[in-house]
Amino acid sequence: MSQHEHEHHHHYPLVMSNVNTAFMVGIALNFLFVIIQVVVGLSVHSLSLLSDAGHNFADVGALAISLLAFRLLKVKANQQYTYGYRKASVLTAFFNAMVLLVSIGAILYEATHRFFNPEPMPGLTIALVAGVGIIINTVTALMFFRDKDKDMNIKSAYLHLMSDALVSLGLVIGGVVIYYTHWYWIDSVLSVIVALVIFMSTYQLLKDSLRLSLDGVPHAIDLEAIKTLALKQKGVIGFHHIHIWAISTNENALTAHVVLAQDSSVEQEQEIKQALRHLLQHQNIQHITLETELENQACRTVVC
Q: How far apart are CA 62 and CA 77, in angstroms?
């Protein structure tokens, strides 16, 4: 009776030219916008523009690293890296989240300092520059919209860009308020709001990427639900020693022991395995290793 079967699907669901194009366009447009924000921010002494420029520059780096990780998904496996470099996408997501947390701390520090020492600035100029940001970030984010639920890196890019668009909207409102009221402390308040928006969009990314980095069960997969579904399959008496982890941000793996009836034939074993593989693939698990053992007998493999 076959006791070990490893199901690999050597395909890359994210080999899509539109995603590659979205990353390239996003990097180019956001880098251009960062230059505009820095030049204008320094000339008018606007902390909100400079802090948002720092955040956008971090996003440019994040998009570049995500693009690299996306391309590494297509690198073939070798004897040293039997899954290729797919885990790089998980590490990239975690790195991006950490960079954003650092930028949040820097923004809050400067905002606190400027709040007690506000400087005059042209509100209309801030509003006009931020308006450009709304257009750039919204257009770029929409390029990721169709594929945002297929990969953590793509989803993080989409969420970051959309949050940037909302932040830019806040800066437009703030710029208009400064123009009419000369309440320059609004600049620092907006910087704090920028930091909070970044944190809210970053926290879940940090949490999910840390979980996957530690080979935890992916957020969208319920181990107990998987076990329950497996036990409902005809011929399956037990389903244990279950391990589920992420190979990349869009591919998952599972190993488990399947307990069969004592009198199960080789044909029945193969049918049960096939049914389980089909079931697990529909639960977003692409790489499947199943060890079989008979009821009332110890596992016959080296690792049990």
A: 25
Domain of 173? 17-213
What is residue 239's three-state secondary structure? strand
| Rounded Cα gap, residues 63 and 76, in angstroms | 23
Q: Looking at the structure, do residues 239 and 136 belong to the same domain, yes or no?
A: no
Residue 181 CB coordination number (10 Å): 10
C-alpha 12/C-alpha 17 separation (Å) is 12
Same domain, 209 and 223: no
Structure tokens at 126: 């801030």
Task: Identify the H or E element spanning 244.
Answer: strand 236-246
Same domain for 116 and 243, yes or no, is no
Give the CA radius of gyration of the chain.
25
Gap between the Cα atoms of 60 and 29, Å rounded? 9
Q: What is the pLDDT of residue 11?
A: 43
Question: Looking at residue 297, what is its pLDDT?
Answer: 66
Residue position matching structure tokens 């920028």: 194
Q: For residue 260, give the CATH number of its domain.
A: 3.30.70.1350
Do 197 and 226 lie in a common domain? Answer: no
Neighbour tally for 161: CB within 10 Å? 27
Q: How far apart are the first and last CA of the chain?
A: 17
CA gap 127, 124 in Å, rounded:
5
How big is the CA angle at 164 (ends 161 and 169), to the nearest 5 degrees? Answer: 135
The percent of residues above 70 in pLDDT, for the chain, comes to 91
Residue of 114, 112, 71 lying closest to 89 (CA atoms): 71
Convert the pLDDT of each residue in 64-103 to its tens digit.
888 888 788 778 888 888 888 888 888 888 887 887 788 7
